[in-house]
Amino acid sequence: MGSRDPRVDAYIEKSADFAKPILRHLRDLVHEAVPEVTEEMKWSMPAFTYKGMFCGFAAFKEHVALNFWKHSLVIGGERPEDAMGSFGRITSLSDLPPDDELRRYLLKAKQLNDEGVKTPRREKPASEKKELEIHPEFADALAGNEAAAGHFDAFSPSKRKEYLEWISEAKSDATRRKRIDTAVEWIAEGKGRNWKYERK
Predict the structure, then answer these.
(1) pLDDT in tens, 106-139
(2) Are 34 and 106 in contact, with CB atoms under 8 Å apart?
(3) Quick one: DSSP state of residue 47?
(4) What domains, with CATH codes, occur in the chain?
């Protein structure tokens, strides 16, 4: 049998009121589907382990995130962009997939860990490892905002790369324009691309 961690109880109790029923439901569903899981706290968030990392959840001010450690093998495809986790922003129980579907994902994750399957590493072709070029529209936007330009120049290479990749991966002009506007606003405040998830 698995185990429950009192620190997870405390985490749920300290979460926003909207998040509590979501977190309790997810916790119970994980234990029901895979009774052998063990609860832990990792990176200040509840995590479920079973023969290695399994899944976990987190509560933020306005949403909950549920994350499968082997997302690409359990669910497939890319993770949603609007929030950390495998299902994007969860603000109520109705935002979750049906319980039967979640149970299938949990059992798939268990099977992968039983078989010792590792998450495949994403290999980048050698041609993609070169320094990313700044998009002309992004360069113009930075040039028009002195604070943003100063912060961007002072950022570490990895911090700059996060913004450059985010903008270059936009699939439409409208999406790219929106990302550039958001990026300039955040950079002007000295924020990295993933500032929402950085420890204070």
Answers:
(1) 888 888 888 887 776 655 545 444 556 788 888 8
(2) yes
(3) E
(4) 6-114 (3.90.1150.200), 126-197 (no CATH)
